[in-house]
């Protein structure tokens, strides 16, 4: 079978993945056959992973980036799962629970099922952010972790992270921030989300989303080494003592690509991309409102718009890769590959379809 | 920072990763920016994953390869973890346990810790294979899964899979075979290990090991769809109903590379590689025995040799990437990149060091 062509990103509007930065692609291709999971054999890529963690810790305002604990995960799901696992393992309760807003990514639900911990989801407020009172009411002595989202998948919202941290720590729980998508946008906003802004214990930030690394490259960063220590299992036949990662063999391409992208883009390249995406999202939202659609105001560059089902299907038929929120709105995520030109073409198709 | 060069494979003797097949590398580079975890957006790579599963099911002698359930995991750890999770979720016991030989890969220990199930490890026999009587004694009504290994990490041994299957099914448990490393070697041996040879329920086989795909590409294949159904969680905003994988975003490069390698090598290329590796392992074992070392007879092409610590360290200092079994023997894994020439150079260094 002749390998087919991967489709282009021209009409991909709902993905949180994007075209890698050219430097990331180049580095990934060179490190395709390396395994940071075996540092005694593949020492070069293992050193690159230390650099990746330092850079991710810098982006997330960790107090001591060169000493930060963390690793390059297979993606945001693994990072979230490991954060829940770490909290479960560190908490004394035998029946630990996790409290998260209903806006949390479905990976948090998956993590709870995998890890056999109770997940208590609480409502969001009218602005789709975690309802602080509901979170406070849901935590108890067995709460190991409170999850806040800094850039929700459905509406791009940022939860009140400092308040969630206070509630968590008052209850003896840890605070995890899921900034898988938002992490490379938020440094250029006024939101409180980082290690410097709030008592964050663990944080997810994915190079393979807005970081412009290559898949697979998620990121888990912890304030204290103890968070990673709680994940370690013994590793015979690797000439290293223990392994805190979920997988054994891991992608050297993902690690090398993440480092190359961050070296190329932090901070100015990411700032420019974030500002352009914000301007595009605001412009698109205004254009949609002008056409009479209900639009959720883009807090981060993600536009949710209520389109009739027939319109949504017609746009998919025209090749637009769109997906829907749980409530049914179409989502447009202004990723680096989504140009103003692409958005104009999208609106032109929408105008053609609705008339 | 200028990205450093990844080290070459010239002296890598203990890794179960290897240089990808050129076709796999080419396909991986083309599909670097795709995500089979979002099939409604990245449909081309999603179709390739169906082909990967069919090919893996063919290699493992699944009764109906075109209808087999499975997916391309991030690696053998994820595949093993998902097999344990599936069994736990399908078994009625609230306190399910898993029975595995002590030779099982440490990922099985990791899986048990993550999934909060009891792991009962049982001794191996004098030939480092699961002791059938010990396994039979360890299972009970709460045993959800019996694990057999077809190609152990330390000694390359193949457990008595049909007998393990009988014990498992008699106890109402499932049988999982870990052929992460051995899966592309075993079809060319007389061992009983596959879906055709035994009542195997789930099986791990990694394209990124002897399959010569690119990292990350593990494989989980199931006899029945119900094994995968037990892993499904709901997926809002993906335009697909559910997701059975552990990660969300996954590597299109891993999937495309796996398909390209299997298309190029199944079955003749893999047979030639397996026969060459077997000959090299036998030759190396004989050479080491002739030098007076204790060698574990290579059943699959993995040579464990008892070297003095000072010799082991001197070989590592000479650049040989060697690791040790739990009992301390050096391991040489005859992967495709380990040529007879490399083994001669290794022996020459050994001879220089020991005199």
Descriptive overview:
The structure is a homodimer of 355-residue chains. In chain A, 38% of the residues lie in helices and 14% in strands. With 355 residues, chain A is α/β, with parallel strands linked by helices. The first copy, chain A, has 2 domains: 22-265, Aspartate Aminotransferase, domain 2; 268-354, Aspartate Aminotransferase, domain 1, CATH 3.90.1150.10. In chain A, the strands form 3 sheets. Chain A has a 7-stranded mixed β-sheet, sandwiched between helices. In chain A, strands 10-11-13-12 form a 4-stranded antiparallel β-sheet, with helices on one face. In chain A, strand 10 (295-296) and strand 11 (302-305) form a beta hairpin. In chain A, helix 1 packs antiparallel against helix 8 (252-265), helix 2 (43-59) packs across helix 8 (252-265) and helix 3 packs across helix 4. The longest helix of chain A has 23 residues, at 268-290. Chain A starts with 21 loop residues before the first helix and ends with a helix. The mean pLDDT of chain A is 96. At the A-B interface, helix 1, helix 2, helix 3, helix 4 and strand 8 of A face helix 1, helix 2, helix 3, helix 4 and strand 8 of B.
């Amino acid at each position: 079978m002749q390998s087919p062509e991967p489709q282009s990103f021209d009409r991909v509007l709902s993905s949180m993945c994007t075209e890698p930065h050219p430097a990331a692609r180049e580095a990934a291709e060179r490190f395709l056959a390396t395994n940071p999971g075996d540092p005694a054999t593949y020492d070069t890529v293992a050193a690159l992973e230390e650099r990746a963690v330092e850079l991710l810790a810098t982006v997330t305002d960790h107090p001591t980036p060169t000493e930060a604990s963390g690793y390059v995960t297979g993606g945001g799901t693994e990072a979230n799962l490991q954060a829940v696992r770490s909290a479960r393992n560190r908490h004394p309760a035998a029946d630990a629970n996790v409290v998260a807003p209903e806006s949390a990514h479905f990976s948090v639900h998956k993590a709870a099922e995998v890890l056999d911990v109770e997940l208590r989801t609480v409502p969001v407020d009218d602005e789709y952010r975690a309802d602080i009172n509901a979170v406070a009411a849901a935590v108890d002595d067995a709460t190991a972790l409170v999850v806040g989202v800094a850039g929700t998948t459905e509406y791009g919202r940022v939860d009140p992270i400092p308040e969630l941290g206070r509630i968590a720590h008052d209850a003896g729980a840890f605070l995890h921030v899921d900034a898988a998508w938002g992490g490379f946008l938020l440094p250029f906003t006024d939101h409180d989300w980082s290690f410097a802004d709030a008592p964050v214990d663990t944080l997810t930030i994915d190079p393979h989303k807005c970081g412009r690394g290559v898949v697979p490259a998620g990121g888990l960063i912890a304030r204290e080494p103890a968070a990673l220590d709680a994940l370690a299992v013994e590793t015979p036949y690797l000439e290293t003592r223990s392994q805190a990662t979920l997988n054994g063999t891991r992608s050297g391409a993902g690690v090398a690509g993440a480092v190359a992208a961050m070296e190329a883009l932090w901070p100015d390249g990411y700032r420019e991309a974030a500002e352009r995406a914000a301007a595009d999202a605001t412009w698109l939202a205004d254009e949609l409102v002008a056409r009479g659609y209900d639009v959720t105001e883009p807090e981060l560059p993600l536009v949710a718009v209520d389109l009739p089902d027939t319109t949504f299907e017609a746009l998919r038929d025209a090749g637009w890769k769109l997906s829907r929120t749980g409530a049914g709105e179409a989502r447009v995520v202004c990723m680096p590959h989504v140009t103003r030109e692409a958005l104009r073409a999208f609106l032109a198709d929408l105008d053609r379809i609705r008339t």
